[in-house]
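Risk register update: the risk of archive-format incompatibility is retired. Evidence:
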Amino acid sequence: MKDSIIILCGGGPAPGMNTVVMSVAKTFLTNGYRVLGLHGGYSGLFSKAPRYEEISFAMADAYFNRGGSYFQMSRFKPKDSDFENNFNLDLFRENNIKLLVTVGGDDTASTANRIAKFLEAKQYPIKNIHVPKTIDNDLPLPGNAPTFGFNSAKDAGTHLARVVYEDARTSGNWLIISAMGRSAGHLALGIGEATHCPMTIIPEMFNKTAITLDKIVNLALSAILKRQLMGIGYGTVVVAEGVFHDLDPQEIKNAGVSMTYDEHGHPELGKISKAVLFNDILDKEFKKLNLKVKSRPVEIGYDVRCIDPIAYDVSYCTELAMGVYNLFSAGETGCMVYVDPAGNSNPLYLKNLQNEEGKIPPRRVDITNGICNNYFEYICHYITPSDYEAAKKFVANPEDYDFKKILNW
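Archived output:
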């Protein structure tokens, strides 16, 4: 029987998912391997009846540049007991599988790290290599290299936000945009910068103060008030969804937002639109301050995950796929593939990236870098001490909306 490899996709989709899977398939098929694709992410590895398909060159050639994922994905996380009791070793033996390729974000990479340790401890002759994916751009790659899917999602998100900004200008309203990003604000910041949004709020901004709902609201109001002083009665505010995940759950509850709670009493933020949530809170604040401002919520997230990848990601994902073959041929395992700007592939060993809990921590926005400094200094609009006197026309205490005071910058 031919040597085989098997590929699985974990977490949520990202543009370029099919490009990676089908490019890996093409590369290995060309070199004489049999290639399998596993449905259901990691759940397939711990099932007695996994769903998998053999990938032919024709299939790979038909799907390599399409959005979405041909192979069904899953957020399944195996328990420790699953490794000992449910790992499907027969799947590997019966198909002569020599390599497991995992494609996914930080959670998928963390599980890949657990699998690497498991395979090593059991001395199973199976290598595993991870391919970094996520529109959140939050895997720790060197040199600020992006994760695949990020640039395509940013491009699509920017198109949506640009249209939304034009609607704000045309209608004289404010549009409140929530951008996906559970742990980091890369996507929100990228969209905000690319659309000259007057205020972008990401969790990393709160590097010198705790995140509170009042501060998030006041940052948005700071932009709205500043534009009022400039004679501009419209604009957009981009908010990374991660700021709400970092809030004390009691704050959300106290704000009077109608939502469901889990068995621990925590708000189930994943079930609601963060744009709607924030817009509702802002609307109450407008009424409290007697500000004549109309705002509308817009969500950017699920609508950019399954788009066709832009040329950058098609090329990048192809290089990542060929990098998998290069690393495998060199005998590497337990690593994440990294492709440098010159197209050279290198291994990033998962055990070297893990934190004390064995997880791969997310890469957050460096709020002190030039991109952030320049964007917040020159593109954003907000209240400064020189605006206090004029701002008293709208609010009694303008210093409460001073951008740098809010953040303790």
